[in-house]
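Input/output pair, single chain:
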Amino acid sequence: MSINKDHLSEEEIEITQNCGTEPPFSGKLLYEKREGIYKCIVCNNQLFESETKFDSGTGWPSFYDAIDETVTSKEDNSFGMKRIEINCKKCQSHLGHIFNDGPTPTGLRYCINSLSLGFDIVE
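Output:
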C-alpha cells in the first residue's frame, strides 16, 4: 500500500518513518482530556479511544488498550534495551512502545509519541 506522506512535518517523519522518539512532556496531545479518537498521523487509521488514555507520568500519551486489530508489535532491541515496538497496522508507521506496567483492566501501557497521532473530537 502506498501512503502519501507529503502532509507530514520533518519531526513527524522522524518519529513515524525513522522510529524516533519525541522529548518527554513535549507532545501536543499529552494533556488532551476531551472525548475522542486518536488516529495515525500518516494514514488516519483509528488507534486509541480517549476512554483508555491515562496519566502515566512518563511524559508521553499513554493508553491501556488499542482499538482491536489496529496496531502491530515487534521486538525492538535498539539502544541496548529490550522493548516491544508498536506500529500502525495499516501503514506500519512507528507509534511508540508497549510495556507491562499499565493499569487494569489490561495491565498494559501503550507509550505513544504525540507526533505520531492525530485527534478527532467526538461530540
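The mean pLDDT is 93. Strands lie at 36-40, 46-49, 53-54, 62-63, 71-76, 83-88, 94-99, 109-112, 117-121.
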